[in-house]
Structure formats: structure tokens, C-alpha cells
Amino acid sequence: MKSQSTRRHLIQAAMAAPYLAREEEYELAVRWKENQDQEALHKITSAHMRLVISMASKFRHFGLAMNDLIQEGHVGLLEAAARFEPEREVRFSTYATWWIRASIQDYILRNWSIVRGGTSSAQKALFFNLRRLRARLSQGSESLSGTEMYKEIATALKVSEGDVALMDSRLSGPDSSLNAPLMEDESGSADRQDFLVSNDPLPDEMVSASIDDERRVIWLRSALDVLSERELKIISERRLQDEGATLEALGSKLGISKERVRQIETRALEKLRAALLKANPDEAAFIS
Fold it and tell me: Coil, strand, or helix at residue 59?
């Protein structure tokens, strides 16, 4: 009841505020921009609160409190006032409409669902226009299949058909908690998350693999000391780079044939393996 009373008061105050003539609006905008005149700002924003309420009412079907939508629209109105340039000779309502709509839409995207959706301009356009376009296409062609409808919407909004399908599924039902119980028997209850399968390694396996990798790096650095300068250069450029150099490229750089590079590489790998086995005889299974 209190929220309804507050909304009625806002609407009544907005409707009672006088319209501003173009000359008066310009004068108030100049006073606010040049002198930060709070009275001028109050008159401008009060005169345009009916625009905020009208804009907020267009988004009431998203299930959020109308009072909150109006408040967010008022934030957009203040942002428009802060950025407005009266010397451009554009009516303030024309300029403020974009900021009011953007502020309300951002609030809806943040609060419509606990799961955050895409915030790109394409995703926002899809979120706010999907239902309208789907309803229009359904009326215009009853035989239009789901795939064809997604294609039409994707073309109209310049997004992928996959994005349309994903957004449609999100808008079709409420959020579901992963902790919501699905069944309960003698052995206890089962949550939705109990049936989610992950192919990722377990945390202890990831930690173990990380420790093993660090240990092997230390072994390798120690074993590299047995190589000559030329052997170390060939192994480094052939085996320790993301994109190893070719035998021909290394041969040209070192002034030897590619066959000689291959021979030196083979010998260096044998020396490395022998050094690693000597230092870590218990880890022979991991040294190839």
C-alpha cells in the first residue's frame, strides 16, 4: 500500500509540474550548466518527470517494482541534465529520452534475474525486443517454425541464431536454484547440482599435476647443464619454444647441414635422458 501511495504521489506531482516553453527551457539549462543553479535543475527535472513515468511504464512487464523503475529513470534524467548542451538547440526531452531509457534498461538487466545476462548492445537489443518480435512474427505467419522464427529475429537484430535460442529459453522460465531438491528418499535428498557432470580434473588432481610440473621443470633445468653450448641452442630452439625452429633454419643459422643438426639434437636428447635418469632413478617411468 505504501508503494502504491508513493507512486500516486509521484505521478500527481509529475502531472502538476508545468511544461516549459523552449525559451524558458534554454534559459534554465544555461543557468544550470554555467552556474550550477540547483533551482534551475529542479525545474528542468520536475517538468520532465512525466517523461520518466511514461518511459518506466513501458517496462513494467519485466516484473520489477514500478517505483524502482521510476527512480532509475530519474537517475537517467539527472545524467542527461549533467551532459546536456543547450547551445546545440535541441529540446531537452529529445536528449533525455535516451538516457532515461538506458538507465531503466541497465537496472532491469541487473535485477531481472540473479544470473547476469549479456550486456553488449546486441544482447540488450535481443533481451528487450525478443518478445515483441516473436509476437509479431507469430501473428503474421502462424506456420513459421521455431528455427525459421529464430532466423528472422537473428537477422532483424543482427545476432546469431544461437543467441536468440538461448535468450528465448531464459525468458521462457524462471531461474532454478542448483540447490533446489529434486528427489528425497531413505538415503537422503538430491539437489539439482548433484546431477551436473564436469570433465575437469578434481582440485587435488590439479594441485598434484601443478606440483609435478614444477618438479620436472627443476629437473630439466639441472639436466641442461650437461649440454654443450651448441647442443643447448639446438634443444632450446627445437624443443623449448612454442613453435620449434626447423632443421633447415637452424642449419643455416649455425652454418651446418640440417642432417648435422638432427644428429646433434639426437645426441643432446640422449645426454639429457641419461642425466635425468641418473639424478632421478625412481622416476624412470616419467622420463622418455
Answer: coil
